[in-house]
Amino acid sequence: MRILRLSKLKEAGDTIIEVLISLSIISLVLVGAYASVRHNTTETQTTQERTSALQLAQGQVEFLRAAKGLPSGKTCFDQSGAATSGTGCTVTLAGGAAYTLTISLSSPGNVYTVKVVWTTLSAHANNDASVTLYYKSVQ
Fold first, then answer.
1. Phi and psi dihedrals of 38, rounded to 5?
2. Most exposed: 12, 43, 106, 122, by fewest CB within 10 Å?
3. What are the strands of the beta sheet with 98-106, ordered from one edge?
4. Range in 5-9, 10-14, 39-43 the model is least confident about
5. What pLDDT, on the 0 to 100 scale, is given for residue 4?
6. Assign residue 89 a region: left if phi > 0, alpha if psi is -120 to 50, beta otherwise?
7. Strand, coil or helix: what is 72?
8. 18 vs 95, which has greater pLDDT?
């Protein structure tokens, strides 16, 4: 009978080593899942910001086409399509990122360069990003 009691005691539960190994494995899985979710969230934010910048740049090109160029002394168009410069060339969207719009003309080829620069809200080092479009004016 004594032998039966010892074997029952050995099967009664897990050892501390087994529990620690299980906790370590669970911790590694959770850390990996957290890193993956954080990376995806950052990339989604970056993609949304880049898409917004591209839409702003495309809007500037459309205003250039409609106005048949940019009046001298002006560096962009505001949201209503009026040529402007200075603070009128900074747009802050609902997401919180501030976009600075700049249009420049390369005289020999009548090529406009539309550049949108913003500071990303995502967790990248050196947080400045930009989108550049080119538009050739047909005169």
1. -65, -45
2. 12
3. 90-92, 98-106, 111-119, 128-136
4. 5-9
5. 53
6. alpha
7. coil
8. 18
